[in-house]
Amino acid sequence: MESMFKSKGEKTFDQEICEELAAKFSSSPYRSGKSLISWEQVKTWFHNKKQDGLMKKDTLLSLIDKTCVTPHSVIRPKKTVSSVRKLASQYASEKYEKPIGERAAELSDLAFEALSAKDLAWYDVATFLNYRVTHSGELEVRVRFAGFRNDQDEWVSIRKGVRERSIPLAPSECEKVEPGDLVLCFRENEDYGYALYCDAHIVEIERNPHDITACTCIFVVRYDFDNFEDKVESNKICCRPAK
């Protein structure tokens, strides 16, 4: 940090440089299990260095530890929250083409869903709280599920359990669904008292004539969890964004 400030001077205030440094420090083993460092905090450090001449022993990490608050006591800026996903994308690929600032801007407009280990159902993500790297090298993120309290937060594998939010199937879009497609399907069971959104694959489609306001097609789906097959209407199906 000291040498970069001396060599780059005013350029250290650029957002892209601050974001790169924030990502680097946040992913260090020293920060495992702690709150993320935002690019604004990095910029503040450089600003203080310029104005007041911080002592050499005052590193960025020590400064953050003295002043940061817990994730639950502050509403994180949108760009700071998206940095968890930004770090995940870096972790998954050693080589990436787009600058960090551009990737963060793209991710900030996306919505995500995460897989709960408690019932193997997918829930909308309200916010990403923190991240960690397990002993096996797996990157996990701490998720706050939409509509749930903090005692329901879970650690979820980025690679296996976080993805862009599924999209409800519109009546006019049913012709785009084909057998073999992966969908998110609403599954109810009155005997066991649950109603969950679970991964399923389309087995068969009974296509019926209808207008653009209401779909009357019947979809036979097979749930990935237990291979149970069921007939459902379009209003219980959400498609993957890539479809």
TrEMBL record:
Q: Which InterPro entries match?
A: SAWADEE_dom (IPR032001), SHH1/2 (IPR039276)
Indicate the transmembrane segments per the record: none
What's the protein called, per UniProt? SAWADEE domain-containing protein
Residue span(s) of domain SAWADEE: 109-238
Which PANTHER family would you find in this protein's record?
Answer: PROTEIN SAWADEE HOMEODOMAIN HOMOLOG 1 (PTHR33827:SF2), PROTEIN SAWADEE HOMEODOMAIN HOMOLOG 2 (PTHR33827)
Task: Give one GO term, molecular function aspect.
Answer: chromatin binding
